[in-house]
Design a protein that fits this description.
- The complex is a heterodimer of chains A (about 350) and B (about 180).
- Chain A has about 350 residues and is an alpha+beta fold.
- In chain A, helix 9 packs antiparallel against helix 10 and helix 10 packs across helix 11.
- The two termini of chain A are about 40 Å apart.
- Among the domains of chain A are: about 45 residues, Uridine Diphospho-n-acetylenolpyruvylglucosamine Reductase, domain 2 (2-Layer Sandwich); about 100 residues, Enolase-like, domain 1.
- In chain A, the strands form three sheets. Chain A has a five-stranded antiparallel beta sheet with strand order 4-5-8-6-7, covered by helices on one side. In chain A, strands 9-10-11-12 form a four-stranded antiparallel beta sheet. Chain A has a three-stranded parallel beta sheet with strand order 1-3-2, covered by helices on one side.
- Chain A is globular and about 60 Å long.
- Chain A contains eleven helices and twelve strands.
- Chain B contains five helices and six strands.
- Chain B has a five-stranded mixed beta sheet, with helices on one face.
- In chain B, strand 4 and strand 5 form a beta hairpin.
- The longest helix of chain B has 19 residues.
- Classes of the chains: A alpha+beta (about 350), B alpha+beta (about 180).
- Chains A and B meet through strand 1, helix 1, helix 2 and helix 6 of A and strand 1, strand 5, helix 3 and helix 4 of B.
């Protein structure tokens, strides 16, 4: 780790002032930042420890029926909050499919949104990376590209966003509350992560010194609770990032879909909400045909960024499967097991 | 905002050169320490400064779980926590489990079920299992136990014994907390 100045502010205002300096980074759970610092990928000159800031660790029901989740709420605490899991089951399922129990105990809501890509070339300071060093080039292109993006990538960066949590957050219209030097503001989660374009070093909509203080979920999202799933396909049973994932929610009435939500993970540098696929589902009877058609629409613009064309068909199938499982109904117990070849549990889900 | 309004600690290679004070309770013992470098992780603090070497450094990147300790009642990877961030915390390590010669029930279960071979990952496995017991999410379903222990790798492959040991400790906990089963 490069030496840094350690700052422990007592209020959000102090934290913002301390982090406005160039080279400053906020530290919360530390599960991603410290890892990056140990690998010499992140070299903050100042670390602003926000873990003890007051007022950022509450889960509150709002007057309009929505939910406000403080930025310092730990992933495990949120996922195991009974009211939250009952109201937003696909989000709880996504949280519990991520990382390990130890990491979920430390990692925070705000930190999850700030999670950097897991691109191996980004993690290797000896490789060219336009994120680490603008203009350096992208060693991933033409490299080992199996798990890279198939949507929204550019010739400057083909990395993916690794978050599970953000996928259903995008699907269910989460809003990010931000405090900063220019005052408070909020933006939809869908607009929080930026596609690489020709500036892959710019990863989020945050300005220097800006701090995520909360994530808000609208009351309308709760209407999907009976039919909401997060399906994650990974290369081992547990403790792995998604190859492809999908968050799906359906509202069903009289044998027809009245509203749908669908977002994909592991396919792009941001959680990939597919509104045109959602629109195509409206009014249709739930079933294989409608789900496959929606999945085709969702991946219509996809193209391989290397040896990863398989991810396009895989993403279609995972999207269709997430919709089918959502239609079948949210399981009473979450998470549904990720399952393993040794699972003795009948009906355990192999996804 | 004047910077003097908040605690500001500046370390080596700067003109300020202050040290950061840190209060920790480790295994019931209070420690007031001065940290001369903010880069020290909780893991390195335990091993190098408090000589509590039971907590192991495997990958040092949050991937293997060998450094698992309980901080304020929750299992975490000590390698991914800055010691400076743990000011005021209560920490339980493998050294704090046994009461004299009497082993903690999870330790005893690991011996009874051969839940290890070389032993390097064992302190982390045991602390993780204690965290899992506290969390109470698995019931006695072996598949959920395996999922709940997936943050701890064992290169010897003692997973069968580890799962059996954790299930045993879980059953004992349930028996002790259900009056009708007493």
């Amino acid at each position: 780790m490069t030496p840094f100045e350690f700052v422990r502010p007592k209020t959000v205002a102090e934290a913002i002032a301390a982090a406005a300096a160039p080279g400053a980074a906020f530290l919360a759970g530390g599960t991603n930042l410290l890892d990056l610092m140990k690998g010499d990928v992140a070299r903050p000159s100042r670390v602003v420890d926000i873990t003890k800031l007051p007022g950022l660790a509450a889960i509150e029901t709002l007057a309009d029926g929505g939910l406000r989740i403080g930025a310092l709420v730990r992933n495990a605490d949120l996922a195991h909050d009974a009211a939250f899991a009952a109201t937003y089951p696909a989000i709880a399922e996504a949280l519990l499919s991520g990382a390990s129990p130890q990491l979920r105990n430390a990692a925070t809501v705000g930190g999850n949104l700030m999670q950097r890509t897991r691109c191996g070339y980004f993690y290797d300071p000896a490789s060219a990376c336009n994120k680490r060093e603008p203009g350096a080039g992208c060693a991933a292109i033409g490299g080992e590209t199996r798990l890279f993006a198939v949507l929204g990538w550019s010739e400057h960066c083909i990395a993916t966003n690794p978050s599970d949590f953000c996928v259903p957050l995008a699907a269910f219209d989460a809003v990010v509350e931000i405090a900063g030097p220019a005052g408070p503001r909020e933006i939809p989660l869908e607009a929080f992560h930026l596609l690489p374009g020709d500036t892959p070093a710019r990863e989020t909509a945050l300005a220097p010194g800006e701090l995520i203080v909360a994530v808000r979920l609208p009351a309308e999202a709760a209407a999907f609770a009976p039919h909401a799933r997060y399906i994650k396909l990974r290369e081992r049973t547990s403790y792995a990032f998604a190859v492809v994932s999908a968050a799906a929610g359906l509202r069903l009435e009289d044998g027809h879909i009245t509203a749908a939500r669908l977002a994909l993970g592991g396919v792009a540098l941001k959680p990939w909400r597919v509104r045109d696929a959602e629109a195509a589902l409206r009014g249709k009877p739930p079933g294989r045909e409608a789900f496959r058609a929606a999945a085709d629409i969702a991946l219509a613009g996809a193209k391989p960024s290397g040896d990863n064309g398989f991810k396009i068909e895989l993403a279609r199938r995972v999207a269709a499967r997430a919709l089918a499982l959502a239609a079948a109904g949210t399981p009473t117990r979450l998470p549904a097991l990720p399952a393993s070849p040794f699972a003795p549990t009948p009906g355990a889900l192999h996804v | 905002m004047r910077q003097s309004n908040f605690a500001r600690y500046v370390f080596a290679n700067t003109e300020f050169r202050m040290s950061l004070s840190l209060s920790l309770n480790v295994n019931g013992v209070a420690h007031d320490m001065a940290l001369d470098d903010p880069r020290v992780t909780l893991l390195d603090l335990l091993r190098e400064r408090l000589d509590l070497t039971g907590t192991k450094k495997g990958c040092d990147r949050g991937q293997c779980g060998a450094c698992t300790v309980i901080v304020d009642g929750r299992r975490i990877n000590a390698c991914l926590a800055l010691a400076a961030s743990c000011d005021g915390a209560e920490i339980l390590t493998i050294e704090g489990l046994a009461q004299g010669d009497v082993l903690h029930k999870v330790q005893a279960a690991f011996i009874a079920h051969d839940g290890f071979q070389c032993g390097f990952c064992t302190p982390g496995q045991i602390m993780s299992a204690i965290g899992l017991l506290n969390e109470g999410q698995t019931g006695d379903d072996p598949e959920r136990v395996r999922e709940g222990m997936s943050g701890n790798l064992c290169r010897c492959g003692a997973y069968d014994g580890i799962t059996a040991a954790v299930l045993d400790a879980l059953r004992e906990t349930q028996a002790n907390t259900r009056p009708e089963a007493a």
